[in-house]
Amino acid sequence: MTTPGPRPRLDRVDALRGVAIAWMAGFHLCFDLNHLGFWVPRQAFTHDPFWTGQRTAIVSLFLFCAGLAQAIALHQGQTWPRFWKRWAQIAGCAVLVSAGSAWMFPRSWIFFGVLHGIAVMLVIARVAAPLRSGLWLLGAGALALPVLGAHPMFDAPALQWLGLATRKPVTEDYVPLLPWLGVMLWGLAAGQMLLARGGGAMAGPVPRAASPLALLGRWSLSFYMLHQPLFIGALMLYKAVR
Fold first, then answer.
1. Given this model, what pLDDT does residue 210 score?
2. Which of 21, 42, 184, 215 holds its CA 20 to 30 A away from the CA of 153?
3. Quick one: average pLDDT of 187-203?
4. Residue 202 has what pLDDT?
5. What separation, in Å, do the N-terminal and C-terminal C-alpha atoms of the chain show?
6. Cα separation of 67 and 192, whole Å?
7. What distances in angstroms separate CA 55 from CA 67, 136, 139, 242, one per listed residue?
8. Are 147 and 140 in contact (CB under 8 A)?
9. Mean pLDDT confidence for 113-140
């Protein structure tokens, strides 16, 4: 018997994820500059459409790429034990994000941010993957449900993670199950469709200029966990020295 070799990377998907990571890093750096008083006049990150629109686009790209990656993993024969190993890494990082945000922002700590959402959505996407073309309809339903099914009873803290609350909770990052599950399901459906056609649209080479983005996309979780402590630490040190 021979040991199977490493699964090939799909550079175009990595590069697309790298775009999301780089965009996110730029957004967070701007947020940190604003939060620490370097930006005058101060920016309204929670209200200004210029910033809220970017956040929506960044999270959408992240979750769509997560759906694509899940389609690729299933196509390459990912087993449940391997899935749970990766899931545990994401869930563990989500716990660390909650702990760190509770220290930095005790009144608005992150109880269900992007990593928390991805951890829950990946399990649902994995189970729903056999639906294939039906994922488009299921995703559309997930996107529409917060508009059609929001109710005050979901404003309770224990239910806010579902995304059916009538008002946004006070938190630094909020990526509830709905409507964002719809974006991941559409990414999964798009990945399955492209793989059924040979996968060339995802597996082809990227331009040399985009190679750093592909490398960044391969290490997205590590970069996500490290970039904010480094940004905030460097800015606080600069502010103290100045």
1. 86
2. 184
3. 88
4. 81
5. 63
6. 9
7. 18, 23, 20, 31
8. no
9. 96
Q: How far apart, in whole angstroms, are the C-alpha atoms of residue 27 and residue 18? A: 14
- 10 closest CA partner among 91, 83, 57, 71: 71
R_g of the chain computed on alpha carbons? 19
Asked if residue 41 has a cis previous peptide bond (ω within 30° of 0), the answer is yes
Instruction: Identify the band that residue 9 occupies on the pLDDT scale cut at 50, 70 and 90.
Output: confident
How buried is residue 204: exposed, middle or buried, by Cβ count under 10 Å (0-12/13-18/19+)? exposed
Cα–Cα dist 171/117, whole Å? 14
Which residue type is seen at 66? A
What are the φ and ψ backbone dihedral angles of 207, each rounded to 5 degrees? -60, 150
Confidence label for 206 from pLDDT (cuts 50, 70 and 90):
confident
Domain residue spans of the chain: 11-38+59-241
Q: Residue 112: beta bridge partners?
A: 174
DSSP code string of 137-169: HHHHHHHHHHHHH--GGGGSGGGGGGS--SS--
Mean pLDDT estimate for the chain: 92
| Amino acid making up residue 28 | H
How many residues can be counted in the chain?
242
Percent with pLDDT over 70 in the chain:
97
